[in-house]
Amino acid sequence: MEQSYVESLREFGLSENEIAIYVTLLKTGESSVHAIAKNAELPRTTTYHLLESLAQKGLVSHIIKEKNVTYLTREGVE
Questions:
Q1: Are the C-beta atoms of residues 51 and 21 closer than 8 Å to each other?
Q2: Among residues 11, 10, 22, which one has the least CA distance to residue 53?
Q3: 18 CB-near residues (< 8 Å, 6+ apart)
Q4: Helix or strand (DSSP H, E) at 31
């Protein structure tokens, strides 16, 4: 099933690293940048840039809770 997501995301035009971030968020749900970077096995600074790119594409959103920022896929936003 994950492979079908990956193929669809490639067709949508996402890079391999953007796909890694997005799939990580689908698996883990709302997460901090640190947790996303760790689970996607990418540097934290790269993860910030990729999350911004995904946000601009309308695929992820962030939530600020008491100075902590977490990210989630747009389908997880209510």
A1: yes
A2: 22
A3: 9, 50, 53, 54
A4: strand 31-32
Q: What is the pLDDT tens value at each position of the chain, 78 positions in all?
A: 467 778 888 998 999 999 999 999 999 999 999 999 999 999 999 999 999 999 999 999 999 988 899 999 987 444
- Say which DSSP state 74 is in: G
pTM score of the predicted model? 0.87
- Written as one letter, the residue type at 58 is G
Helix residue ranges per DSSP H, the chain: 2-12, 16-28, 33-40, 44-56
